[in-house]
Amino acid sequence: MKKVLVVIDMQKDFVDGALGTAEAVAIVDNVVKEMKKDYDVVYLTKDTHQVNYLETQEGRNLPVVHCVENTDGWQFDRKVEKAYKKLNNAIVFNKPTFGSEKLAEEIKKLAETDGIESITLVGLCTDICVVSNALLIKAAVPEIEIRCLADCCAGVTPASHTAALETMKMCQIKVM
Prior knowledge:
Layout lengths: L1 E7 L3 H4 L6 H14 L5 E7 L9 H5 L16 H8 L4 E6 L5 H13 L2 E9 L1 H15 L4 E10 L3 H13 L3 E2 L1
Parallel strand pairs: 1-2, 1-4, 2-3, 4-5, 5-6
């Protein structure tokens, strides 16, 4: 049975770049500490947009260019990148939208082949990409315990972070 960690969008633009917040900066060390724990598999996602971002539906609704592929803001936060490079069990998923169906499919496949004891989620932003991925994963593997570490997540605002944690609780995701 595998223990899985999912690290959502710990990228420069979300930490201290175009969409960064003090709350996001404050969780970086907690996320890195969690990445150093004994997980069998670590999945990391990268919000990945193209230069035409402002022409997309998301770009029209959130008109702040961010996480454009191969830009500095698209890269992992420096401390997260350093921790990631030390892992030999990590897989990165570039995702063009809030949730990654490919990630959920990969987790479902792992559950069917090796078994999964638990899935732990951390990252940014609690109220957009973390909750989106948590619900996709829950739909893919409804009988596996999914946890979200509140002190390893930050939302667009503290209030929306709290609201997303409550939403996850209602969907039987254990918030810790």
